[in-house]
Amino acid sequence: xxVLTDLNLHGDTPVRVQPxxxxxxxxxxxxxxxxxxxxxxxxSAFVAVSAALFAFGHWVYGIVMTSGG
Length: 69
Fold this sequence. Notes:
Elements: H1 32-66
């Protein structure tokens, strides 16, 4: 069982009943691969920014605590 939802909206439907790109909606809809990549990039960016903020706070805390003496 997958943790995340299946982004393939067609599932097991036959090809003849699947709409063509742009037939039922906008033609600029991102693909499943693009959605997965975007999800991983945003998650990685969040972790990187969180780590950078933590490191910056730790650095500032070190400066404040050593200069108080």
